[in-house]
Amino acid sequence: MTNNGHPKLGAVDLEIIKASLSGIVQEMQHSLFRTGFSTIVRESQDASCAIMDTDADVIAQHVVLPLHMGAFPACCGAVIAAYPDDIAEGDAFLINHPYEGGSPHAPDVAVITPIFFEGARIGFCGSIAHKSDIGGPVPGSCSGQARETFNEGLHLPAVRYARTGERNVEIERIIAVNSRTPELVLGDIRGQLGACRLGEGRVAGLVRTFGKDKSLASFQRLLDLAETQIRAAIAEWVDGRYEGERFIDDDGIELNKPVRIHVVVEKTGDRIGFDFSGSADQTRGPANVRPPLVKAAVGYALISLVDPLIFINSGIMRAFDVKTREGSVLNPRFPAPVNTYNATVHAMVESLFAALSDAVPSRARADGCGSRSVIIGGRPTSAGKSYVQYEIVGGGAGGRATKDGASGTSVNQSNAKIASIEIIESEFPTRVRRFELIEDSGGAGTFRGGLGILREYVNLVDARFSIRSSKHAIPPLGARGGAPGRTGDLTVNPGTRGETHLPTRYADYPLKAGDVFRLETPGGGGLGNPFAREPAKVLVDVVQGYVSPQRAARDYGVAVVRTGRSWQIDETATTRLRASAQQNERACPMSVNNAGVIGLGAMGFQMARHMVNKGFAVAGFDVLPEAMTRAKEAGVTVVADPAAVGAVADIVIVMVATDAQVTDVVTGSGLLDKLERGSVICISSSTSPETARELEGVCATRGIGLLDTPVVLGQEAADSGTLTVFCGGDASAFERAKPVLSAFGANVMHVGPSGMGQLTKTANNMLLWACLVANYEVLSLARKMGADVPKLIAALEHSSGANWSLGRWGRSTGKWAEKDMDVALELAQEAKVPVPLAALVDQLMKGMTREKMKALLS
Amino acid sequence: MGRYRLTVDTGGTFSDFVYFDEESHDIFVAKLPSTPDDPSHAILAGVVVLLKKGVLPSEIGYFCHGTTVGTNALLEGKGVRTGLLVTHGFRGIYEVAEQCRPHGSAIFDIFYDRPPLLVPESLTGEVVERVSAAGEVLLPLDEAALRTTVRELAREEPESIAVCLLFSFLRPEHEARARTIIAEEMPGCAVSLSSDIAPQIREYYRLSTTVINAYLEPILARYIGNLERRLSHAGLTTPQKSIMQSNGGMATFAASAKKPVATVLSGPAGGITASVQTCRATGLKNLITFDMGGTSCDVALIKDGEPSVQNRGTIEGRDISLPMIDINTVSAGGGTIARVDRFSRLEVGPQSAGAVPGPACYGRGGTEPTITDCNLVLGYLGEDTFLGGKMKLNPQAAHRAIETHVAETLQLGVLEAAEGIVRIINVKMQEAIKAISTMRGHDVRDFRLLAFGGAGPLHAGAIADELGMAGVVVPPYPGVYSAMGLLMSDVKHDYVRSKLAGLATVTADEIVKVFAEMESHATRSLRDEGFASGHISIERALDMRYAGQGYEITIACEYPVSANAIAEMRARFDETHRQMFGHTAPEEPVEIVSYRLRGIGRVPPVEVPKRRREGVPLADALRERRKVRFNGVTLDCPVYRRERLDVDVTFTGPAIVDQLDATTVIPPNHIARVDEFKNILIGLGPA
Fold first, then answer.
1. CA nearest B597: which of B477, B673, B494?
2. What is the band of A584 on the pLDDT scale with cuts at 50, 70, 90?
3. Is A615 left (phi over 0), alpha (psi -120 to 50) or beta?
4. CB-CB neighbors (< 8 A) of A228 in chain B
5. Contact between B202 and A423 using a beta-carbon 8 Å cutoff
6. What is the ipTM of this complex?
7. CA A527, CA A365: separation in Å to the nearest integer?
8. Backbone φ and ψ of A231, nearest 5°
9. For position B109, what pLDDT does the model report?
10. Which of A266, A807, B158, B435 has CB atoms 3.0–4.6 Å from B83's, for a disulfide?
11. Which helix H or strand E contains A839, and what residues bound it?
C-alpha cells in the first residue's frame, strides 16, 4: 500500500488528520445535541453525524448508532444519484426514504450537505436523527401493524432542502403539516443542518491546513487502513463455510409465524462473504429491513469480532461482500413495510455471531435479550399534557467465551437508558410495583446468560397500551451446548382470572384503571456445557439469588444446600449428579430431565422405553390399561390423563393414530394448561402438514413450542431406538426437544418450519411405496425368467437400482400405504401438481400384501 | 487564627505542600515523596519542614488537605463490606443501573462490563414500605419485618449499610427509622441514608451515590481519625482542619468523614480553585485550565470567574449525583506512550508508562518512547534541570526509545518523530479543550489557557496557538498549583431536595419554606464548625426543566422570593436554555425539580502578594542556551530561571523557562511578560 507520496510525514499527519476528524464529528454531534429540539435527540441521543467523501463513503462517523454506518453511504449516494450535476456550495438535502436511500425507517431523517474547498466538491457532511413523529396512522410513526410503507409516515426521496444557504420553506411546510409534532421535527432538522454546516467549515479548515491533495489522500488512506485492519484479522480466522440461523417471533401481522434469518459465511484468506439468501420471504408486517442495514449489521458484528476500538469508516464495509435475495425479509420489494426493523437486526447480528463463533472462538457469545419498548398513551399527565409514557427495557446478555453475560442490560446495537421509576410516577398515572432481575432466567452454561428484568406496573387511569418486543416465543439461544435463556412475556393482570398474555408485538390494548401489567424480559443464552461450570460459581449464583438451588442441581449438576445460614456445595451429591449427567450427556446436553409420552402403543411404548433408558423421567398415558401396565413395567410413570403428563413434563411426545386424536390431545385434554411456557410438544403421529401448522399456532399463543416429528424406518427401528425423525417447526423448540427425540432416534433432523416434518415423511412415503411396487414388478419378471431372487437382490443391492425396501424384501408390509398415498394425493391436488406415478402406485399398492411379496422369494 | 496556613495535596508520587504566612503574606512550597501505605507519614514530614523553620505547631491556624484515600479505595475495590436496604420489590435498581452501555466502543465490545457491584445481592435487604410520588405513605413501614431483615443482614457482618428507599427525598422518615433500628441491632455499623447524602429524584443515581458513601465511610473515618491524632500529637491542634471536596470547597474533618463520596472526584478541584483566585487577582475573567501531569490531562472552563459546575459525574463507570466541578479528562500526560502498529500507524496513547517504569529517560526500566522522552529530545526539557536537578534525565535513552520504536519503522528522523508525536498528543488535548468550550457554545478566542501540572506549561503555548486562544497564563508554582488552591478555598456544603412543582403554580411561600429548612441546616452546620454569622453566606438555586423533559438546568434563585422573582427566574431559565441548547420554548410549562442550597463558610482570603519590579535585567535570569526544535527547525534558544525573572520583564520566544516544579516553553514569536503576581503571561501580541 502506498503512503500517498509522503512516506515520511505520512504517519504523523495521518494520525493528526484522524484525531481532527474524530473531533469534527464529535463537535457536529455536540452541536446537534445542543441545538436539536426533541428529547429523543438530546436524551436518547438517537442521532449520529458523519463526514463522507465524494463517493459517499463515510470517512469518519461519531458512532452512536451502529446501523447508521450503512445508512449514511446509502442516503448520500441517493443524493448524488438524484442530483448528478446540480450540487452547489451552500446546498442541503433531505432524505428519509428506506427504498430510495438508506434510512432504516421514515422517522430517521438524514440531512446531507456538500463540502466545498476552493470551488470544488471534496465530500459531504451528514446527520441522521430520529424524529418524534413523521406522520402515519400512529403517533411516533412506528406502527407494528403497518402493511406498506404508506402506513409508515411521510417519505422524502432525496430533495433539495437548501440552495446556496437558503432553506426551502415549502419543504418545511410540507413536513410540518404531516407531523403531529411539527416544531420538534423542524427544530431537529434545522439542528441537523447546523451541525452539517459546522462540519463543512471544520473539514474545509483541515483541508486548508494540510493541503487538498494530502488531505484527500489521507481520507482514502484511512479507508484503506480500516479495510486492511479488518482483512488482516479475517485472514487469521480458519477458512471455511459457516452457517447461522435465527428466528424472529413474528412480523406483527401474521402472529405465531416465525421469520427466518439465515446466513452462510464463506471465508477464504482475507476474503469473507455473507449470503443471506436463505432468509424468509419478505413479511407482510414491518419486520423487513433494507440491504444498507444488512451491511451495517455485518459491519457491527465484524467490528465486535475484530476490534471495538477501530476507527469507524466505510473502509470496514469494503472488507466483505453481502448477498441478499430480492423479495426476502432482508431485501424487500417496495412498498413492503420496514418500521419495526430492530428485532430483525438483532436476529441478523445473532445469526452472524452463531455462524462465526467457530471461526473466532475467542469472541464467541450466546444470544441476548433483543430489544423492546412499551408505550402507554391516552392519559393525562401531571403536566396536563397527553405525553406518552415510553420505556425501553433491556434484559440478559448472552454468556461469553470467557465470562458470564451481563444482567439487565441493553444488547447488540440497542443502547437506551431505562426510565427512572420516580420520574415515571411523578409524571404519569402509573405506579411501579416491582423492579427485579428474574431468578433462573439466564440460560445455563459454563458461562451463564445474564438475567432478564421484571417490571410490574399498576395503571391508574384508562389507557392504551402497545408493546414492540421480541423473544417472547423463541428464546435467546445458548451457544456451544449452553441452554437458552428464558423467554420474555407481557402479562396483564397476572394471577387473576382475567390473566392475559399479549403477543410479542401488539398495539392499542385497552388498559383499564387498576389493571396490572407485568413485563418480563428474556434472559441471555448460556455458553458452554453447564456441567462444566465451576461449582464455586454456581454456589455464588445461588447465594446471590441468580440461580435457584433446584436449577443448580438440575441444570448444572451442582448440589447447593443450606446449612444454618450459609449455602454450601454438597460435594458428594455434586459428583454423583455430574457423573450421571456424563452418562446421559448424549441424551440430555440441554438439561431437560422430564419428558412425557401420550399414546403408548407399539411405537409410543418403544419411544418411552428408550427415553427411560437414556435417563429421562418419563410420564406416560394411554387409553388402554394394558398399554399402561406394560409401560409401567418399563419404568414409565403412568398418569391419569394427558393433562397430568403436561404437569410434569417439559417435552411431550404425542404418538396416537389419527389427526383427530392428535388435535384432541393437544387442544382438548387440558395438556396446554398444565405445560410450562417454553415446553415443547412433539407430534410423532403422521398427520397432514396443515394440522401441524394449526396446532403450532395454538401452542405459540401459550408460549409452548410444537414440532411435527414424524418417524420413519418402522417398528424395527423403533424397537432398536434407531428411528429417523423428521422435525418441522421452530428451531429453538427443536434444539430443546432434540435430546429427547435422540433417545429413540438415530437421526433427528430439523427440516424446516412447522409442517415440513410431515411433508418430508410424505415425500419419503411416496418414494418408499413407488420403489416397492417397482421392486415387485421387477422381481416378478425376473422370477418368471428363472432368476434366483435372493441372489438377484443381493447383486442389485450393490447397483444403481438399490433401494431400502429391496434390501428388506419380504420383511415390509404394505400396511400404511393406503393412508400414506391418500395424504400424498391430497397434497398434490392442493398444490395442483400432477403426480401420475403416485396415482398408479396408489392403485397398485391396494392389491399388495406381505404374502405376495414374500412369495417372490421362494 | 494562627499565623500560618498549611496545605497538603497528597498525590500518588508526591505530596505537595504550600505554607502561607498570614503576616508577611509569604508563600513557600515543598514537594516530598508520598507514603501510599500511610499518607500521614508524608504529611507529618511536611509539617516538620515548617517546624524546622522555627514555627511553633500552635502557630499553625489552618490545615487543609486534598486526599485521594477515598478515590483510591473505590478504584481499587478496597472499601468495606457493605449492605444495602431498598424498598420491597425494587432490588433491580442497583444492578440494572442505567441499563445502557457508555456511548462509543463499548457498544461493539462483547466483553464490556459495568463495574462490579459494591454491594452484592446477598447483602441487599428489602424493606416493606412505600411512599408515593406525592410524598404520601402508601404502605407504612413494617418495623418488625425491618428488624428481622437487619438481623439477617447483621449475620453477614457488614461494616456499613446504605439505605435507599423510593421517594425518601420527599419523606425521609422511613429511612430515619431504618437508621435507628440498625443502630439498635448492629451497634457500631456505619449507616448512609439516601435522604441525607443525595435527597433528590431519580432512584438509581441517589442509590449509587449513597452506596459509594457507605462503602467508603469507615475507610475515610479511620483515615481522618488517624490523621487527626497524629497531627494533635505533633502539637497541631487547630480546629480549622478540612478536606477538599469535588465541588471545589472544603469540608471539616468531621463532615468529610461522614460524606466521603463528596471527596472522590476532588483530585483536580484544587487547581480549579486556585485558578478562580487567579481570575480575581489578575482580572482575567475567562480561563480554560490545563492541568497536564504524568498520565492524564484535566481541562475545565472558568467563565466570568466562575467554574462550570455539573450536578452529576462518574468515576470509572460509577455514578455520583453531587455538585462537582465540570472537568474533562483525557489520557494524555508525560508518560503517554507512542507506538507504531503493524499497519504502520503511529498511535499516541492511551497507554501510559506511569511513574514506574516511567519514560525511558527516567532510567527506571522504561523502554518505550513517551511524551516526556520527546520533550527531552526536542530540547524543551533539560537533562539536568528536571525537578530542580534532583532527577537527571537520560537523553540517550529517550533518543534510543524513539529511534527503535518509532523513527526507524516510519523512516523518520528521531527529531521528526518526536515532533510528530508531540503534535499528535497536542491535537488530542486540543479536542478535549474544544469539547468543554466550542462544543458548549463558548468562543475559545475569549479564553486564556491557564497551564499547570508538571507538563502543562510545556505544551500550553503550542496548543493555545493552534486553537487561536487569547494567550497562556503560567502561575508561579504550576507544579504544586492544586495545593495552592487548597489554601484559597472556602468551606462549602451543598444541599439538595427534590420536590416537583409547576413554576406557574408554585408560590413564593412554598419555595421559601423548602429553602428555609435547608438553610437552617446549613447555618447550624457552619456555626458548629466555628464560622461566625458574618462569615456565612448562602446561595440558592433551582433545578428546572420544561415539563416532561429528562434534564434540568440549574438557575440561581434570588432571595427573598417574590412572584416577580419567580417570573424572572422563568425568563432566565428560557434564556439559559437558549444559550445552552440554541432554542427556547416560552409557551411550554416549566417545572421545578430540585432545590439546591450551598452554605459557604468564608475563610479569610489569601492576599496573593503583588510584587514590584526589582530591576533585575533579563540577562541575569539566563541559565544557558540550548538547541530546541520548533516546527522542523532547530533554534538556539535561551533558558531562563523562573525565580530570577523580574516583574514586568518581557521577552519574545523561542525561550524556555525552568523552575523546580515545571518547565515553560515559549514558542517562536510568542511574547512573554511577567506580571505583578509573577504569572508568566504569553500571547502572540504584546501581552
1. B494
2. low
3. left
4. 343
5. yes
6. 0.91
7. 7
8. -65, -40
9. 95
10. B158
11. helix A836-846
**Chain A: residue whose CA lies nearest to B432:** A23
What are the b/e assignments for A846-856, b being 16+ CB within 10 Å?
Answer: eebeeeebeeb
Write down the pLDDT at residue B50.
Answer: 86
Task: Calculate the alpha carbon distances from A733 to A89, A687, A706, B521, B608 in Å.
Answer: 58, 19, 7, 63, 77
From the list A7, A19, A42, the residue facing B411 with the nearest CB is A7
Give the minimum alpha-carbon distance from A429 to chain B in angstroms, rounded to a whole number: 10
Q: Do B500 and A382 touch (CB under 8 A)?
A: yes
For residue A188, the surrounding DSSP H or E stretch is helix A182-210
> What letter does residue B642 receive in the DSSP assignment?
G
Which residues of B fall within a CB distance of 8 Å from A453?
92, 96
According to the model, what pLDDT value does residue A798 have? 84
Give percent of chain B with pLDDT exceeding 90.
71
Chain B positions in Cβ-Cβ contact with residue A26 (cut-off 8 Å):
431, 435, 439
Mean pLDDT confidence for A528-547: 95
CB contact under 8 A, A410 and B100: yes
- C-alpha distance from A456 to closest chain B C-alpha (Å): 9
Calculate the CA dihedral of residues B580, B581, B586, B592 and round it to 10 degrees. Answer: -60
CB contacts, 8 Å: A393 with chain B: 99
What pLDDT score was predicted for residue B107?
93
pLDDT grade, residue B125 (50/70/90)? very high
Give the DSSP H/E element, type plus range, for residue B399: helix B395-402
Partners of A543 on chain B (C-beta within 8 Å) are 122
- Mutation target among B87, B98, B99 for the A interface, most CBs of A within 10 A: B99
Shortest Cα distance, chain B CAs vs residue A566, angstroms: 10
Of B112, B113, B411, the CB nearest to A8: B411
Residue A34: in which H helix or E strand, if any?
Answer: helix A10-35
C-alpha distances in angstroms, B649 versus A166, B99, B380, B673?
53, 58, 21, 6
Query: Is residue A726 a contact partner of residue A760, using CB atoms and an 8 Å limit?
Result: yes
Q: How many Å apart are CA A472 and CA A502, to the nearest integer?
A: 9
Residues of A in contact with B103 (CB under 8 A): 45, 63-64, 415
Across the interface, which of B92, B101, B420 has its CB nearest the CB of A415?
Answer: B101
What secondary structure, in 3-state letters, does B487-506 show? HCCCEEEEEEEEEEEECCCC
| d(C-alpha B216, C-alpha A169), whole Å | 58
Query: How far apart are alpha carbons A264 and A231 in whole angstroms?
Result: 18
Which of A152-156, A581-585, B515-519 shows the lowest mean pLDDT across its residues?
A: A581-585
Residue A7 is predicted with a pLDDT of 39
Least confident piece of the model among A828-832, B40-44, B159-163: A828-832
Cα–Cα distance for residue pair A43/B370, rounded to 1 Å: 39
Contact B99 A365 (CB under 8 A): no
Contacts B340 to A, Cβ<8 Å: 11
Task: Name, of A4-18, A840-854, B175-189, B344-358, the range with top average pLDDT.
Answer: B175-189
Closest CA–CA distance from residue A145 to any residue of chain B (Å): 28
SS3 B593: strand
- Would you state the cell numbers that stand for residue B86, as one nine-digit string? 431498598
pLDDT of residue A258 exceeding 80, the answer is yes
Over residues A3-42, the pLDDT tens digits come to 344 434 488 999 999 999 999 998 898 888 777 666 666 6
pLDDT digits (tens, 9 = 90+) for A53-101: 999 999 999 877 889 999 999 999 999 999 999 999 999 999 999 999 9
Convert the pLDDT of each residue in B189-233 to its tens digit.
999 999 999 999 999 999 999 999 999 999 999 999 999 999 999
Query: Cβ separation of A394 and B99 shorter than 8 Å?
Result: yes
